[in-house]
Design a protein that fits this description.
The complex is a heterodimer of chains A (244) and B (587). Chain A has helices at 48-56, 78-83, 101-108, 115-128, 130-134, 145-157, 175-190, 202-208, 226-231, 233-238, and strands at residues 10-19, 22-32, 37-42, 63-68, 71-72, 86-89, 163-167, 194-199, 211-216, 219-225. With 244 residues, chain A is of the alpha/beta class. The radius of gyration of chain A is 17 Å and the shape is globular. In chain B, the strands form two sheets. A two-stranded antiparallel sheet of chain B has the order 1-2. Chain B has a two-stranded antiparallel ribbon with strand order 3-4. In chain B, helix 1 packs parallel to helix 4 (90-116), helix 14 (307-321) runs parallel beside helix 16 and helix 15 packs across helix 21 (457-483). The chains are: A alpha/beta (244), B mainly alpha (587). Bound molecules: adenosine-5'-triphosphate and magnesium ion. Residues 19, 22, 24, 42, 44-50, 91, 200 of chain A line the site of adenosine-5'-triphosphate (ATP). Magnesium ion binds next to helix 1 of chain A.
Chain lengths: 244, 587
Amino acid sequence: MSTTDATPVLELRSVSTHYGPIQVLRDVDVAIYPGEIVCLLGGNASGKTTTLKTILGYVKPSSGSVHLEGQRISGLPTTEVVERGISMVPENRRLFKRMTVRENLEIGAYLRSDRDAVEDDYERVFELFPRVKERLHQRAGTLSGGEQQMVAVGRALMARPSVLLMDEPSMGLAPVLVQQNFDIIQQINQAGTTVFVVEQNANMALSIADRGYVLQTGRIVLSDHSDALLSNPEMQRAYLGQID
Amino acid sequence: MSLTAAETTELLPAREVQLDRAVRVGLIGGLTAMFIVTSGMLETFDLRMIVDPILSLGYVTLMAAPFAVGYVAGKAPPVLEGYAAPSVGARNVQAGAIAGALTGAIYALYALIIHVLDFSSVFIKLTEQTKKIVTLDMGAGGVLILALVMAVSGAVGGAVHLLERRWKRAVLYSAFWVVMFGLLEVLVSQIAFVRRISAVKELLYGTDAGLTLIGAVIIGGLVFAAYYYLDGRVRAATRRAMALEGQQRRRFILISLGVAIVFLAVLPQILGPFLSEVLDLAGVFLLMALGLNIVVGFAGLLDLGYVAFFAVGAYTTAILTSPVSPKWSPELSFWTAIPFIILAAAAAGVMVGTPVLRLRGDYLAIVTLGFGEIARILFLSDALKPYFGGAQGMLLIPDIDIGPFTIDDSISFFYPIYAFVILFAYLSYALQDSRVGRAWMAMREDESVAEAMGVNIVAAKLWAFVIGAIFAAIGGALFAHKIGSVFPESFAILVSITVLVLIIVGGMGSVPGVTVGALALVALPELLREFAEFKFLFYGTLLIFMMLNRPEGFIPSRRRARELHLDEVEQDAWLAQAAEQDPAPAE
Ligand SMILES: Nc1ncnc2c1ncn2[C@@H]1O[C@H](COP(=O)(O)OP(=O)(O)OP(=O)(O)O)[C@@H](O)[C@H]1O
Ligand SMILES: [Mg+2]
C-alpha cells in the first residue's frame, strides 16, 4: 500500500526529545504515508509514548522536526496540531471518567465547527461501536475496560483526523477484545484514516500493520515491512519470543 | 459463578437499628450540648423568644441536640438487596431515647459540675446567667428536668421514623418553620403589607419578638397543612411543566418570566427599606458568587483571592465617578464607567491568571490567596495613597441615574443589582452550554487529556479568570455606589472565604444553588445581627455538615452530584472489568 514516491502524511525528521537533561528520543526518523497502518514497537520506557507526545506538540523536540503533509508542525501548540488533523487515543484510554459517554465524544469534536459533519461522525462511531450508542448517557468511568476502549477510539475519531495515533490499544484487554480492537483499527483505516499505532504486542500489531518501526532506548533500531519484521530473526528473539 | 442472594428466595435477616450506634451518637449529642453551654450560645440565644413566653431560642438549640441524635439513632440502615426490610416500631423510639438520654445524662453531669465549681476564669462564657439557664434557675432539680426532657426529645426524634413519609415531612417542616418565624419576626413585621394590617402582627407576635402561642399554632398548622397537601403535587406539576413542548412550552416560559419580573419589580416595595437593604447586600454577594462559580465551579480553578476583583471594580468606579478622587476625577456616570470597569477587571483577571497558569489545586489556592491580600494592601498603602486614598478610602461616590430616576436608597438599588444578577445568571447558563463551557468541563476533569483533545488550556483558564473578574468587579462597583465610598478594609480575605462558602453550600456549578446559598448565608445573618458573633461558627458547622452529608450542595448541578458519588459506581466498573478479564469465562 505504501507508495514511496508520495509525500509522507506524517514525518519525523531526526527528532530528539529531552525531559529536562535526560534524552529520551535520539534522532528518530519515521515516515508514514497516506492510507497506511504503521506500528511502533518497543519495550517499556523505550520512548513510544514520548514519540506520540512529540508529534502532538505536547512536548517539544530539542532538535529535528515533525511534519504533517509536508508542513512543519513541531513547535505549534497542541490545539493547532489537533486542528490540522491529528488525534490520539491515549495510553490507558484516559476518558473523562466523570463525564458521560456523549460528553466525551463531544470533547473529541471540540475544535470542529462543521455541525452537520459532526452529526455524521456520531453515526459513524455508533456504526463502528453499537455498544457506545447504548451507553451514551452513562458515566465513562463506569464503563468496562472494553467499552472504555471503544469510547476512547470514538472520541479520537470525532475529531475526524487524517492521522490517528493510538498508544497501546491492547493494553489491559482480554485476548478476544484485542483481536476485535485490531479489526476495528483495520476498518477505520479502510475508511481512509492513516493509523500510527504504538504497541508492545508486536505479533498482533504486525498482523494488521503495513510497516513497523522498532524503538530501543529512544533509537529506531529496525524498520521494515511487517512480513519482513515478522520473519526477522533478531525480532523473533527480542519481541516475538512466543513464536519459536 | 456463585448464586447471589437475590436469586435465592430466602432473604437474609433485616439490618435493624443498632443500639450501640445510639450510644455513639448520644455521646456526640452530649458533647454538643456542653459546647452550646460553654460557648455562650445558650445565654445569648436565651434572650430571644421563639414562642413567647415558654420557649427561647436558647432552649430550642439545646433541645435540638438530643432531637437530632435521636433522629439519627432511630433511623434504620438502608435496605440492601437480599435483606429483609427492618420492622418499624418500638426499636426506633428506643434507640432515639437511648441517644437522647445519654445526651441528657452528659448534659446533667456537666451542668452540675459547672454549677458547683467555678470555671468562669477559663471559660468566660460560663457566667452566672448561663448557670441560671442551665438549671432552669431551680438548682439540681431543674437540671434533672432538662435531662429528662432531653431523653424525651431523643425518643421523639426516633419516633419520627414511625410516621409515613408525608406525615414525617409535614411534622418536621412545621417545627422548622415555627422556629424560623419565631426567629425572623423582623422579616414579617417589616413587610409593608403586614405593617399596615397591624392586627396580623399583633396576632402572630404580640408586642415583642417571638411568636405568641396562638401565632405558633397558626404557623405550625398552616405549614403542616401546606406540606401535607402539596406533598408530591409540586413535583408532579414541575414534571408536567418540564414535559410541555413547542407552543405550550414557549407560552409557559413567557408567563413564568412575566410573573417573575412583576414579582421582582414589586418585591422591594413590599419589603420596605430594611429588608431591601438586606437583599441588596445578598445581591452583591450573589454577583460575586456567580463569578466565582465560573472560576471554581465550572473551570475548577480554586481562587481564594477573589475579593481582589471585587475591589478592582469598586476602586475603578470610585476613581472614575467620585468628584474627590485624589489623582484624577473625570466624574463619569456609573453607566459610562462600566466599560472601563470591565476593562480593568479583565486586565486584573489576566494579571492574576497568567502567572498561575501552570499551577493546580492547592498551589493555585495558596498563590491566589496571596494575590487577594496583595490587592488589599496595595489599596491601603501610603505609596499609592495619591491614587487610592490609602486608609481614608475614597468618598462621595455618586448615586446611579437611570433616565429620570435616581438610584439612591436601598429600595431603588435593588433594581440595578438584581438586573445584573439576572444578566449574570443568564450568562452563566449560556457559558455552561457553550464551547468554552465544554472546555472548562474537560479541563476540570483532566487537564492534560483535554489539551491532547485540542482544548486550548491557556485560553480556557484566562477566560475563566477574566469572566469571573468582570462579574465580581460589577458587584464591587454597585457596592461602592450603594454605600457611596470605598475603604480597603471592605476587601478582607473573609469576603473571599464567605463567597466560597456560599457556592460550596449552595451547590458548586449550579446557578440556582449559588443563588440560594447567597440568599441564605448572607441575608439570614443580616437578619440575625444580634447573633453575629456566632456567624462563622455557623458557617463552619454548616460547611462540615455539608461536606460529610451532601458535598454536592443544597441544589447541586446534576454533573457535580454525579461526580461526587462516583466511587460507588467505580466499584461497579472495577467489577465489570474484572469480570471481563476473568480467565474462566462463563460458557
Ligand atoms: N514527563 C517526564 N519527565 C521525565 N521523564 C519522563 C517523562 N515522561 C517520560 N519520561 C521518561 O522517558 C522514558 C520514556 O517514556 P515513555 O513514556 O515514552 O515510554 P514508553 O515507551 O511509552 O513505555 P511504556 O511501554 O511503558 O508505556 C522513560 O524512562 C520515562 O521515565
Ligand atoms: Mg507508553
